[in-house]
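Follow-up to my earlier ticket, as requested here are the two runs.
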Amino acid sequence: MKMINLGAFCAGVLLGTQVFAQDVTLRLSEHFPTSHVGSRSGAQHFMERVNELAPGLVKFEHYPGEQLAKAAGQLDAVSKGLVDMAVVGLVYVSEKVPLSTGVELPGLFSDAEIGARAFFKLAQNELLEAEYKPLGIRPVFTFVVTPYQLMLASDEEVTDISQIAGQKLRVAGATGELIAQSIGAVGVKISPTDLYLALERGVIDGAISNPGSQVTYKTDTLLNSWTTNASLGNVAFGLFINQRRWDSLSQEVRDVLMRAGEETGVNVAQAYIKSDQETFTKLREQGKMVYELSPEMLDTFNGRLQVVTENWLEQMAQRNLPGQEILSAFEGYLEEERAK
């Protein structure tokens, strides 16, 4: 009978245990500064939640505020493996993920939480196959911000569409340009970090954006007229992980990341809703014009915004992309979430 070297056997077991239990460290990059609601409720919440679910299983190296890549460079950074994970503003890379911008179309939803839950389903299914896998990435969490509002440097309440004709409004991307054009304005693509200077110098007359973010960039001090009930589109974000890095992780780690991710997307939406309301309260206290568009103005806006979806679908068709299928799938997921 062959004798077993007990010392060698124990060493092998110990080595195997060490390999199995070795630390996983993920480099996570984002353009949001740590004070931004998108970071606090997004990447920061995600990392905390992972640690709560499985203490010590995963460590993170966090690089916020464009330390490793600009907003438009986050997708390349994670796709090429320069970082393990990155929060990507899909609006900044619409040429690479055109189908994903369908969730940013105006009038699809008024509740950001419902939008976030529906987008997560779309991202894990149709968009994963159509856009993310070919780029070598996969979504861990996704979210949409609250519907965009009209914010002007002037302190006038908009009671007629002619008041914004020709005004230069900051927009986030291509869909925003279509939205601005549909209501008679001129969309100017400017990053959030450059918005303050553009307003201060009079380069633009206002913005189409979400209210809560303006406090972070101090632009609330320069914008004086704010709608509360418009639905001028939104922007979508996702925390993506490099596919090769994902493949290297154990199933245990993957499960924890995905559970924390799904919860985080909803958390971000809830945080944006709360942030908007807090911002409106602060603005009113400062004497700013904060108002609801009249039913007549809403009808005017909504009528004009229909062309945005038509133009988007036409653009997708020209590129031989399944725009209608993606939009229909998203609308179906929205209905599922509303029915809950």
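Run two:
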Amino acid sequence: MIGAIAGDIIGSVYEHDPIKSKDFPLFGRSCCFTDDTVLTVAIAKAILGDGDYRRTVWETGRQYPAAGYGASFIDWLRSMSPEPYGSWGNGSAMRVSPVGFAFDTVDAVLREAERSAEISHNHPEGIKGAQATALAVFLARKTRDKARIREEITYRFGYDLRRSVDEIRPSYSFDISCQGTVPEAIVSFLESDSFEDAIRNAVSLGGDSDTLACITGGIAEAYYGAIPRHILCKVRELLTEDLWLSSERFREKHGIL
């Protein structure tokens, strides 16, 4: 899940200033963690605890009120009894990577991904995006087989993963939907040759960069293993103590390098 957090931080400076190139400073001067990181850690904390995604996401999100949430999710956080609001947004996919690391069967991964999504993003596309992302993380971790990941995700979810990053990039633009984010993020991983290359692919698409790179980063970490030290050190520098310690506890519990 540190891979997802690193992707969020790296992509944060390009969310509203998109680029169409892989040639950019890995950590811009104003890079920071956003809601993608906060909610990814919240899902990890729920898994470490009692599995109550709704309560843990609500409590953790309220601790970081200026993290950059969407308007509907802000209303969800402000409610004293938050209910799902039919969202198909990519928020369900950006926060789900811990599920792919923590559970050890396909059925469990799909079930928990749905549970984590439906607290807010209970539209079929919101659930589908979370499940596809979590399953990609799980398969990357278990099989290290990109061809199988492409085949399984295409078969189960109908996403078009045949396109290349170069084919997607020219016409791609900012898109907050799961259906317009998750396939592109997975392709960014599938075409990569390292963790850093995967993140650069995602950011270079010029879309919702922090979320694209967050989704890609979780899958890439599961596939490539240990995060490069210079990236890990920068993530540690930029996270609050609470977010870092929660991430570390999750990594230790689930044997993530």
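The only thing I checked on run two: The chain has 15 helices and no strands. Let me know what else you need.
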